[in-house]
TrEMBL record:
Gene3D superfamilies: Tetracycline Repressor, domain 2. It comes from Paractinoplanes globisporus. Residues 36-55 bind DNA. This is TetR/AcrR family transcriptional regulator. Residues 13-73 form the HTH tetR-type domain. The keyword Transcription applies. It comes from the Bacteria. Keywords: DNA-binding, Repressor, Transcription, Transcription regulation.
Amino acid sequence: MSEVIGEARRRSARKRADVLAVACSVVAERGADATRFADVTAATGVGVSTLQYYFGTREDLLIAVFRFAAQSDFDAVGERLAGVADPWERLMAIASHLTGAIGSDTGWRLWVESWRWALRDPELRAEVLGDYTRWHVLLAEIITAGVSAGRFATDAVPMDVARQALALIDGLALPVALGDPQVTGAMAGDLLADALGRLTGLR
């Protein structure tokens, strides 16, 4: 009996994740404030009552979308880093993934929406700041390894360099997400590579 219950719960979790993946696109297109259960139902075919069962309120659904998108981004980067040993290549794998997220538009639209929502929601704000901490720690570890391997020549504190690196990524991402014709996705990627090379003292 417990195996049957366990399988049912796994199916429910998979279905919930499938709904969230589609809901990410809905929120990215419509914006968080304009997204309703009916919009997600139209995109997924999942009834409003089921969405309420999965998530509770509309606000809970939106927060779940933001958390799902953030975790998906981090997981995708982890997969890209698997088997990549060189610190510079690891750094550029992160940069290229995030620049690629600009190209798809959905990732950065959701990131911007989560910033806006976090300004009004202390719980989500803590989650978003926690996301930044995870990225900072990952980048600082790569920078430390790069200095030890002689790939990077910076003598700055690795966490400081990590914060600067992520600030560069955010700063180049925003105009692309807004559709600035003077900063294309490809240009942002090139500028980011140049800036990160200077920041780390690439050898």
